[in-house]
Amino acid sequence: MRTRRLATALLLATALLTTACGGSDTTAGGSAQPKSGGSLTWGVETEPTTLNPHLNGQSNTRLLLRNTYETLLSRTQDGGYVPWLATGHEVSPDGLTYTFTLRDGVKFTDGNPLTAAAVARNFTTMQDVAYSGGFSSGPLSNLGAVTARDERTVVFTLKNPYAPFLDFASGFDIISPAAFDKPQLKAGGPEIAGTGPFILDRYVKGQELHFRKNPDYNWAPQNAAHQGPAYLDELTYRFLPESSVRTGALTSGQVDLIEGVSGNDASLFEGDSDYTYQRSLNNGSPYTLYWNATFGPATDEKVRKALNNSVDVDAVLKSIYRGQRTRGWGIASSVDALFYDKSIEGAYGPNKDAANRLLDEAGWTAKDSDGFRTKNGQRLTIELVQAQSTVRDQREVLLQAVQAQAKQNAGIDLKVSYVDLGTYAELRKNNTFGSIANSDTITGGIDIENHWYPSSSKGTLNYSRAGDPELSGWLQAAAATIDNAERAKQYAQLQRFALVDKAYGLPLYIPENQIAAAAHVHGAGFRPYKQLPENSYDIWIDRG
Question: Could you tell me the pLDDT band of residue 332, with boundaries at 50, 70 and 90?
Answer without folding.
Answer: very high
